[in-house]
Amino acid sequence: MQTAVHQAGNLYLDACAHAQAQGLPWNRVQNGERAEDVRAEYLAMSETLFELEKRAMGYLEQGVRLGMG
Amino acid sequence: MTSHLPDTPNLKHLRHQAKDVVKSHKRGDATCCRILRHLNRFRHKADADILNATLSLVEAQFAIAREYGFKGWAGLKAHVQEQKGSLPGSLNMPAPGKEPGNTYARGMAAVLSYLGHDVSYEDLMGLSGVAFSLQIDPEGPMNGEELDCAWWPNDSREFRAGLSVVSFATGRDLRSLHYSWSDLQPDPASAFRRWMESEVVSTLSQGAPVLAECDHAFVITAMDQENPPLLGYGTHGKSTQFEETLRASMYPCGVLLPGREKPVPSQSEIDFHSLTHVLNRFHAEPAPNDACTWLCGKRAWEEWIRLQKSGIGCDNNMLIHLRYNRGSAAAYLGSMA
Q: Do B279 and A61 touch (CB under 8 A)?
């Protein structure tokens, strides 16, 4: 169980890094960046986070199964 | 026949009650006659005679005082002011941490710590499932051209969903009284008095602070007679950082009430229970015919990405929440592994 939980934890660390990698979208646009570019990068980040999250949940499911055994 | 005063009588409410008697009398509503027979001049009069007579506010106040078993308004007023001094509260509880984050986890960490539980903010983020949550309200308000899909009513929702896990893990009964904002209209003050006040008073009297659901969490440590009567620790405006003692800026739509202690399970039982909750929330489907528009877990992710592709949902709030939450998820799993 510990290994699976550890793997999930690492994926959440990756998720944090992605979430911190770009500024807040409204602020970026206010600071002069093109809204289209900001939206595209924000969407790409969201999709990446969702993929990481699905993988992390897979590890947590594995951890719970092992914990039950 | 007399009536009983509530446990926490409020002079303002009693004045309103007297004004209501005057209004009823003015419009010829005979329901006021029973109370007005506390006045000597009306004692043996028929309803019609009472309603045809003149009535002053002072007389109505006198009748209200007699209704509650007092000799007159002055006696009632003195009693209420005496009671005010003995209202429960003024718990000498340290303020929640000032770091930004989810105010429900931060507030509850302070409440549980005050009650003797060794539980951190990160623990509560993980146990409640908030650390792993992404919530979305497709019917949130518009912020300029963007949908504020992660607006503040979402904050308490996931915390409440995980309250039973927090209770299980900490060995403290935790109960939620929650109402929709529409339930509280048109008079949130009356709704609070009717549905929540006695529970809050009782909990404070037993020495436990209460977490209220306002725009952010508000830790109630004392009550008084003002509006709203809730004193404690809260946040200002959009800030998620707790401030020193202040008055709640609004009446709450719910309260989280600590109760009795119970046995604490083993760490492996807690971990299993907690992760099962996280997985259940991730795979949760909206209930059929559920009027609620909020989504969580996988469905929330899909909806958020769909909204962005349709041109809305590129929102500051969502990213701010994700940063708080996923930072806590990594810390929580790190301590578990």
A: yes
